[in-house]
Amino acid sequence: MSCTGLVAKDSSEHAIGIRTIRNDYIPLVGAIEALACIQAVNMGAEIRLRDLTVKGNARKICKKLQANKPDRSLIMAYVVDLKEIRKSFQTCKFNYTPRSRNKVAHILARKTLKDERYTYLGTEILE
């Protein structure tokens, strides 16, 4: 089991949405960060962002998503899905960021795993 903590921010770095998602079944260890990217992109689409930058602490996933060549790894299906989903945005980037710079998302995820409570705050609450 794992948990994804997502924090959506605007261009001024103000939080516009927060969500935690508990993942009960993860088939591969490497799939956790890929799944987190999919969940972040889906959240961006739900709150109707045109431009999206997903920041995560999985350098390998970010490199796979930036590469123009086909992925042949065990998480290929996630990578292909992400490359297709990101076409719905005007711009969609995947950038590596160290965990120390993404503390809020990690705190949310840990708290959700510990308390088994979910967080979902829509944009109307945070504006």
Automatic annotation (TrEMBL):
InterPro entries: RNase_H-like_dom_plant (IPR044730), RNaseH_domain (IPR002156), RNaseH_sf (IPR036397). Transmembrane segments: none annotated. It comes from the Eukaryota. Pfam families: RVT_3. Residues 33-111 form the RNase H type-1 domain. This is RNase H type-1 domain-containing protein. It comes from Gossypium arboreum. The lineage of its organism: Eukaryota, Viridiplantae, Streptophyta, Embryophyta, Tracheophyta.
